[in-house]
C-alpha cells in the first residue's frame, strides 16, 4: 500500500457525501527514481463511510468564581461569536453570541441577604470560555449562585445549534480552589484548569508547581498509570489558573483521571499533609474529592472496541465496585458510587466527563431528618444509619437503583433521573429534572405495607403520566411491593403524587401471596423488570413473566385480593412452556448486612429474567437458571418470540435461541453461567454478554443483522459463532480479567452517526474497582 493522507474539509460551504471522489490535481509526484506526476486523476474508489451534519447542541460544562468579582464560564464546544463585543447592542445575531454579556443571567439560588450581584463586562478566554466581571460594588458572597445562559446562544456549527441542557449551572461563591477540567495537549503533556489562581513557586509549600519527580509525585497522581507513572514537571500559566503537567510515557486513547493533593488520605491519593492552595492561602486549600480531580482523554488512538481494554478505569477514582449505567439528557451516567454520594457523566463520545454530586433541600415540600447529607448513605453496620456518618437525608443506608425514566404529561415529554434507596420501612424515592453538576434531589412517597421488611426500591419505570416502582422485601407473604404514582406538571416542573399500592404480593406467580398453587418462594423477592412493548406491559421476577395491557396497568384499581388482581389487571402468564424450558429460574440473592445482598445493588446476572428487548421485530427474553441451591447460577438462556397479529407473545410462542451450554460457554458444565447484558446498539446490531469466573472472565458476543436476519438457535453441542452467527468481541474479562458485567448502555452520538455501547465490568461489590469498556457500531 502507498502512503496515507488525511484530508480535512472546512469552511461554511464544505460538504462531503458517500460516492464522491477526490481528484488529485496536477503537480503531485511519487518518490520513484523516475517520478510519476498526476494530471487531475480521480480516486480509484469513491468515498465511503458515514457523514453527518453537526446537530449536537452545546451546553454549559462548568461555571466557577475566579476572584470575588470574576466568574469563569466553560461551554462544551466552540461557540458562535459576533465579530466585536462592541456590537453586542446592535448586531442582528447578538442573541446567538456567547461573547455578548446580555445573554448571561446571574442570580442567588435561593435569594438571601447578600447584595444582588451585577455582571458588568465580559472577556473572551477561548472559543468555548468567557470570563464575566461583576460591578465592583457587588462582590460574591459565600453562597450558592445560579448562572443561566440564554437558550438562543448557539455553537459554531455551519448551521448553529442553540443551547441544549444544561443551560444553567449552580456554584458556590468564594469557594476554595478546586480542579474544574483537564485536557490532553500532546502525547506526554496535559493541562489542569483550576477555578482560581493557584500558588506558584517551584517545589514550594502549597505550590502547584514542581520540577522533580519526587515533588510532582507529592502533588499529582494520574490513573491509570502512564508509563512508569512519573510526572516530571508542572508549570503554571501566566494567570496561574491552569498548570501544564509533563509526564514519562505516552498517552493511549483512553480516559485518565488526575488528582491534585488536598492533604487528605483514603480518597484515591495518599498525600499526607501536602496540598495545593490558591493564591490567598489559608482556607483556600484544594477541596476534598470529587473537587480535587478531573478526567481527560489521552491523545493516542481512541480505544473504540472491546478488544483494546477499558476506556475508563475506576471512573470515580475512589475504588467503587458497582455502578449502574444509563442515558439521561443525551449523556451517559454512571452511578452511584459505593458511598452513594456521586455520579459520573460524559458525552456519548466519552468527552467532557465530569463527577456529579447531589443536594437535598429542606423545605415545605420535603422534610429531612439528616439535613447535612450529601448522598444516599451507605451500609456501615447492617441497615442502621447515623446522621453525619453513613446516613442519607432520611436515614437511608444506600442506593439500590439509579436510572432515568421518560414520562408524557399533558402531551409533553419529560425525562427524570431517579434514585431508589435502601432502609428499613422504605418510604421514599428521590428524583430530579436537574442537569447541573450538583443535582437538586426532590422526593416522592412509596408504600411498602409491611414495615421493616420493605427495604429497597429496585425497579423504576415510567409509562405516560405514571411512575412505577418495584420494591424488594423478605417478608413471608407481603412481597414484592409495587407502587403507581401520578405525575403532574406546572411551569415545566414535574411533581410526583401519592402512591397507589399495586399489591404485587397478590399477583399470581410473581407474588408470595399470589396464589395457593404457585406462590413465589424466594426469600427476597423483587421485580426484575417492568417494560412497555407496544401496547403491552411485561413484568417479571423469578416466579415468571406476566403480560398486562397498558390500559389496565395504568388505570387498574388497587386490588384487595388475588381475585381483584385478575378483575382489575387481567394478567396473563407468558413464561415459556416449551419442553426446552427446564430447571428453576434463579432466585434473588439472600439479604446480608455487608452489601444488602438481594435488597441492595443487584447485578443482571443475579436476576432470573434480567432483560426483555425487541430486535428485528421479535422479542428476546434472557433467563438465568439456578442450581439446586436456587440462588446459585447454573446457566443463562436466551428465548425468542415472534409476536402474533395483535403484537403479543403467548407462553407457547417462545423458542430457545441460546441454551447456555454452547461450546464458548463451557458446554454441558458451563463456565459462563449467567446472561448479564442484552441490548441493541442501533437497529441492526444485537449484543449479549455472559458472566464468567476468575479463570475465564466475562465475555460479549455481537450479532449483525443483514437484510433482517436473526441469530440461529443453538444447542449444547454447537457453537454460538459457527452455528449461531454470533461473533465474540474482545477477550475473556474484556482485557481486564473482570468476572462480571455489572451494567451496560447503548447511546447514539449524533455528531458522528455512531451508536456507542458502554459496558461496566468488575468482580462484584467490594471486590475491585469497576472499569468501563466501549465499542461503536454504525447502522
Characterise this structure.
The protein is mainly beta. Among the domains are: 1-51, no CATH class; 60-172, Immunoglobulin-like, CATH 2.60.40.1130; 179-302, Sandwich (Immunoglobulin-like). It has 3 helices and 46 strands. Strands 18-19-20-21-25-24-23-22 form an 8-stranded mixed sheet, with no helix packed on it. Strands 26, 27, 28, 29 and 30 form a 5-stranded antiparallel sheet that branches. Strands 35, 36, 37, 38 and 39 form a 5-stranded antiparallel sheet that branches. Residues 10-14 have low confidence and may be disordered.
Terminal CA distance reads: 28 Å
- Spatially, the strands of the biggest sheet line up as 18-19-20-21-25-24-23-22
Radius of gyration: 28 Å
Discrete helix count? 3
Class per helix and strand makeup = mainly beta
pLDDT average, as an integer?
91
Inertia-based shape: globular
The main pleated sheet reads as: 8 strands, mixed
* CATH class type of one domain: Mainly Beta
**CATH structural fold name of one domain:** Immunoglobulin-like
| Topology, number of strands | 46
Uncertain ranges = 10-14
Fraction of residues in β-strands: 35-45%
Query: What is the CATH architecture descriptor of one domain?
Result: Sandwich
Seen as an oligomer or otherwise, the chain set is single chain
Fraction of residues in helix:
under 10%
